[in-house]
Amino acid sequence: MDQYDVVIIGSGPAGMGAAFELAEKVPQAAILMIDKQRFSTGGMRNDCKMNFTYPIGFPLEYWSEAEAVEYLDKVSAFLSPTILRKKNLQIYQERAKRLDVSLIEVAQTHLGTDGGLELIKKFQEELAQRDVELSLSEEMLAIDPESRQITTNRRTIAYRTLLIAPGRQGFRFLQEIMDTLSVGYVDNIVDIGIRVETRIERYPIVKDYYDPKFMFPEKVRTFCTNSGNAHVVQEKCETSHGEVYYSVNGHAYSAQKGKENGMTNFAVLKTVGLTEPLASGQLFAEHLALQAMLLGGGRPLMQRVGDFRLGKRSKAGDFNHDLYDFPPTLRTCCPGDISLAMPARILRYIWKSLKNLDTIVPGVLHPSTIIYYPEIKLYANKPQYADNHFRVTDSIFFAGDGAGTSRGITAAWASGIRASRGMVNYL
Ligand SMILES: Cc1cc2nc3c(=O)[nH]c(=O)nc-3n(C[C@H](O)[C@H](O)[C@H](O)COP(=O)(O)OP(=O)(O)OC[C@H]3O[C@@H](n4cnc5c(N)ncnc54)[C@H](O)[C@@H]3O)c2cc1C
């Protein structure tokens, strides 16, 4: 049986943050990082815009501003961001304020999907130089906490301390682990919303501020804006009963002259937290996703804003004519009627937010603008952490988006570092 001091599950930013910190603090420790993918992927590969301002990406229940700032300094030292300059911010902020909307000023950098890949390669080389072993195409399947062993699709591995950071896609896997370890948990929030796609000239703020963070009333916010060479994509997801659905998302390649497609896309998400009667937000979100799949023939829905305003579905035949002057970048979606698929209250708040946005940045609700649905963000149920370092039991720690300790690359990296500071006590 293979034996390591530290085993890290997941090579995303949370796993990386922990691996670098442990390699520095305990250089003699034998560290293994495994990832089920063939390439070290993690979310850094998608667009890779990074936010360096609290509270973006930091769930408030786990992070005070002082803590986040302390860790962000450390994260910046690794990621060495070139912060993008912003222009005309005050104009937008004043317009927003009049509508009770805030536009948060966030220190950002953007590497693009291709730039993110380069960064991952660089980190892999640096980890190898520090003798951290990376095993790809290896999936953790189960754990035996008594003997401090995990089983993967290849072998059994003994650990002294373990970090599980499987990302948002791994939220169900984390749930299984919590059940095995008898870790208590409470239901987590879900984010449900749409992705908006339009020409840059109709949302020109992106030329002044790459990923503008608008916070609207009723827990609605803009999220993950991409522009330049930007594309809407779909992620394949599975419900707890094994049914497949697709959630939309977006990314852009790094800024390269001549390669721009002139498009921008961003999400508008509504946070939903369910309370009485106690129900699962994740199951609720999955039901909504399946409803969208039903209406879209197994694909996400897309609708031109012009059709939406008229209360009619978009159809393939008349999806491109007259004012509808650009093709969707995610062509596999089904033209349809989003108001048939989304619950009224969520839709009402999102539409109201979009109208506010159109007052702050006039033009974004041009009839040609496309809205895609569903864009859903699921997080694992919130574990009851045993300490401030995201320890769940004995020598086992969770971190990253799946565990609910972050919602973005920089915060995931920070939560990996924070977990590692508890892990050193077991070495
Ligand atoms: C399309 C898209 C675009 C995004 N754009 C941005 C952006 O621009 N900026 C930003 O801040 N955030 C962005 N995000 C979110 C960002 O990716 C996450 O916040 C971040 O990657 C979370 O880090 P993590 O380490 O928790 O998880 P991840 O980065 O998801 O890494 C988890 C890793 O664990 C592996 N894994 C899972 N289960 C197992 C298992 N059982 N055994 C072994 N390995 C396992 C997975 O293969 C994965 O590589 C984007 C996400 C997506 C999907």
Q: How does this structure look, described?
A:
With 427 residues, the chain is α/β, with parallel strands linked by helices. The protein folds into two domains: 208 residues, 3-Layer(bba) Sandwich (FAD/NAD(P)-binding domain); 189 residues, no CATH class. 29% of the residues lie in helices and 27% in strands. The strands form five sheets. Strands 5, 13, 14, 15, 16, 17, 18, 19 and 20 form a nine-stranded mixed beta sheet that branches. The chain has a six-stranded mixed beta sheet with strand order 7-3-2-11-23-22, sandwiched between helices. Strands 1-10-9-8 form a four-stranded mixed beta sheet. α1 runs parallel beside α10, α2 crosses α10 and α3 packs across α9. The protein is globular. The two termini are 19 Å apart. The site of flavin-adenine dinucleotide (FAD) has 40 residues, from α1, β3, β4, β15 and β16.
Main sheet: strands, sense, barrel: 9 strands, mixed
Number of strands: 23
Report the portion of residues in β strands. Answer: 25-35%
pLDDT < 50 runs, ≥5 residues: none
Indicate the CATH class of the largest domain: Alpha Beta
Counting structural domains, the number is: 2
Q: Which class best fits the helix and strand makeup? A: alpha/beta
CATH superfamily name of the largest domain? FAD/NAD(P)-binding domain
The general outline is globular
The helix fraction, in percent, is: 25-40%
Q: Please report the distance between the alpha carbons of the first and last residues.
A: 19 Å
Our Rg estimate from Cα atoms comes to: 22 Å
> Helical segment tally?
10
What is the CATH architecture assignment of the largest domain?
3-Layer(bba) Sandwich
Please state the average pLDDT score. Answer: 93
Bound molecules: flavin-adenine dinucleotide
CATH topology of the largest domain: FAD/NAD(P)-binding domain
What's the quaternary structure here?
Answer: single chain
